[in-house]
Amino acid sequence: MTSAIQRKQHLVAYGFILPFFAVFATMFIAPLAYSGYLSFFAHKLVGGAKFVGFENYVRAFQDPAFLFGLGRTALILLVQVPIMLGLALFFALALDSGRARGSKAVRLLIFLPFAVPGVVAVLMWGYLYGRDFGLTGQITRALGLPPTDFLSDQLILFSIMNIVTWAFVGYNMIILYAALKSIPSELHEAAEIDGASQWRLAWSVKIPMIRPAIFLTIIFSVIGSFQIFNEPKLLVEIAPTAIPQGFTPNFYAFNVAFVNQDINYAAAIAFLLGFVIMIVSYVVQLSMQKREVRW
Amino acid sequence: MRQGARKAAVAITSIAAVAALTLAGCTSSTDPDDNNSPGPDDTGGQITDAQREEALNTPTELTFWTWVPDVQDQVDMFEKQYPEIHVTVENVGQGLDHYSKVRTASKAGTGGPDVVQLEYQFISSFAQTGELLDLTPYGAADLADQYVPWVWKQVLSNDQVLAIPQDSGPMGNLYREDIMNAAGVTEPPATWADYKTAAEKVRANTSSYISNMAPSQGAGWLGLLWQAGVKPFGYDGGQNVTIDVNSPEAKKVMAYWQDMIQNDLVSIDPDFNDEWYQGLNQGKYAGWLTAAWAPVFLSGAAKDTSGLWRAAPLPQWDTSKPASGNQGGSADAVLKTTKNPIAAYELAKWINNAHDPALLFTTQQNFFPTAIAVLEDPVFVDQESDFYGGQQVNKLFAEISTTVDTDWQWLPFMEFAYSSFNETFGAAVAAKGDLAAGLDAWQDALVDYAKQQGFTVNG
User: Which residues of B411-427 are buried (b: 16+ CB within 10 A; e: fewer)?
Assistant: First the structure.
């Protein structure tokens, strides 16, 4: 008897979610499937297309450009991400402690670089890094020191890590700060009555309480590190010999598709990178869970 | 439950990452050879005058992709001449951005332009993928003797005419007379040996460099090889390429530059960025070995130094046989996907070949012309430039243009060639290292790529 009404409700519900699935299928699943399909072909400038199975994937594993790119992003993950998240956590705790003066202004200032569009930020850093006429060049010259070439092939990776750190410290800080705000105040009060210092409070109460938020920022950063694209794409204009085609895997996929005219291989690289991200994310997740048990 | 949700979140974000990446690779793999364009190939033989009349008097919409500033003025002239034809001008970017969009549209078979601007160095790349319409049946071959011979060769592939020349860039030497005088150099160097002597004086007596040699300026370095008579590339229009970038002749030229670089006689900054513009404005560079389009470009880029610059031919390897190379310059081609090939051809031809619009290119866009009639037009030749102290710079470059070797060819994959140039030779320049080894590495990269793409490679 009620089933007619239920059916109607179900239909309406499906009607509401249909637009999402329509867009999801056409803009997401279809391209994904299509590029998966493309990755099993080779289309040469001479000779046209033919089915090659997993050849593109095998090729990627033997391609130094791709492997070096993966290595670079792994280095960013190991060096830059801990620094960035450490800073974000420090700022979030400092703001949350209520001891810092002008905390609203500080919060805004730290968040501001994230509000600047990434492309604009990279262009600004391009000027700051300038050896002859950029800001760092002018400062070192004024101090009578030899200018540092932040865009040389030795320093470019460091320079990019620096840009990424500035861009995302504020973003991660906001996530952690919001999580800190949700900790019930009785907990600090109890700890403070017990005589815990701010450090002790942060270490033993706050950080364990916001572990899920920290975990979230780590996963975002893992994915973000492997996806780095804007920075090399824009800096290659001013540091053309320091940034090779395969600087990061994402940048490499773009270059393989649009410079080397090899869309099939680019599709394979993109899929491989996706798998790498999935595996690393999963490994990170597992290790976090283990730690949770130990604590 | 929460763990499950978390896992799902990770899985979804990871899939999203994959999808976002793969979107970049999502273009059709349709073989461009499948494109059937209506044209003389279907009807056979040359276009008749009656067909041309009919096409030009039928209401037609054309799209023209170009990065030429103010080209609308030439297009307006065309529309006035042929009122039935309407042209939409679109600027989709310059260089690589422009080319990748053309390729994407061409592969999709829709959404592309009818007429497209291409640099000479990329014509064979687009010809190789079968994207350009052969303009011979439309009467393009008749234009051959109206152009400087080396320029005309640039738009040919076997017997096909693939584009109508627009502008060119024979190379010369722009220099700051004031800095040269301060360094004790009173004449522009006639030979490369003189140039080195002058560079030493400039370094010793001023804070400038005689020139900047940008590590990534592949077209400029190739122009210098072109001047020296080196033939690094060859392409037969089919599947045979010749790659010989590390020939003894090329290494001889680069040995000269290695010496200059390692003795700190030239600077090696990347070009066309803020630092470089500042360098030009503030006298870090006392000169620039560059192309015929540069004199006007420089007068805009280094406004503060107006009146101080002069122009001269490139220093020579052999003064008895003055030679130059070319850097840059472009042409307008018709894509095979066009539905209106006759009107598209007429647009490409008319704006570049009819005297009024072609001359306007030299006075308004400041292009260096390719048509002999314009190169000899007093309006162009006798122009005196204040930026160059009243020198007749156009006249000088018009003379240089006749000394460019006609036999230069490009590879059918110059996008890759330039990018690997930066990673091999360019990196050697930036490291002040062994340029001959840089050439060897470039040779290997080019040969590997060519073989992998199915070409047959000759020495």
Answer: bbbbbbbbbbbbbbbbb
